Amino acid sequence: MSVNRTTTARGFSLIELVIVVVIIGIIAAIAIPRMSRGAAAAGDSALTANLAGLRNAIDLFYTEHGNTWPKVATFTAQLTTFTDDAGTANATKDTTYIYGPYIRSIPTLPVGAKKGKNGVDADGSGANTGWVYTETTGAIKANCADAEVDARGVKYNTY
After folding, report:
1. How far apart are CA 78 and CA 26, in angstroms?
2. What residues have CB less than 8 Å from 107, skipping those under 6 apart?
3. Residue 13: predicted pLDDT
4. Fewer Cβ in 10 A, N or C end of the chain?
5. Long-range contact list for 145-152, CB < 8 A, 24+ apart?
6. Residue range 74-106, pLDDT digits in tens
7. Intra-chain end-to-end CA distance of the chain, in Å
C-alpha cells in the first residue's frame, strides 16, 4: 500500500504582503504630520516659557530697584549678576551688591530666523539679537519678523 504524500508550502501571498505595506503606509501618513506639528508646538511653548522667565526677572529687578527698569546697555549683567540699589552690576555678592541675580542666563530664541540667538537690544538690529527690549516700559519680545508666525497664525513677536 502506497501513501501519496503531498507537501504544501506555507507562507504569505503577494497580495497579503501588499496589503500589509499599504496599511503601514497609511499609518505613516497619519503619524508623520502629527509628529512634525508636535515639534513646532514645542518651539512655541519654549518661546512662551522663555518670555515668562525674562519678564519675571525684569519685574523683580524693577521692584527691588525702586521702580527702575534694567538698562538696555547693561541688561544681561543687571539680570545675571548681583546689583546694588542703583543697578550697578557686580560678579560677587557683598554688603553693597545685595540684589539678584534674577536669571541664570539669557535664554536663546527658540523659533524664527534668529533661532539660537540670545542677545538683547532696543531695536533688534544686532547680529546676535534674539530679544528686543524697551527700557522705558520693561517690555521684551522675540526678535522675529512679522511674517514669522506659529501654527495658529499668531506672530511670534506678539507673544
Report:
1. 54
2. 50, 53, 54, 118
3. 85
4. N
5. 145/112, 145/113, 148/111, 148/112, 148/113, 150/40, 150/44, 150/111, 151/37, 151/40, 151/41, 151/44
6. 999 999 999 999 999 999 999 999 999 999 999
7. 90
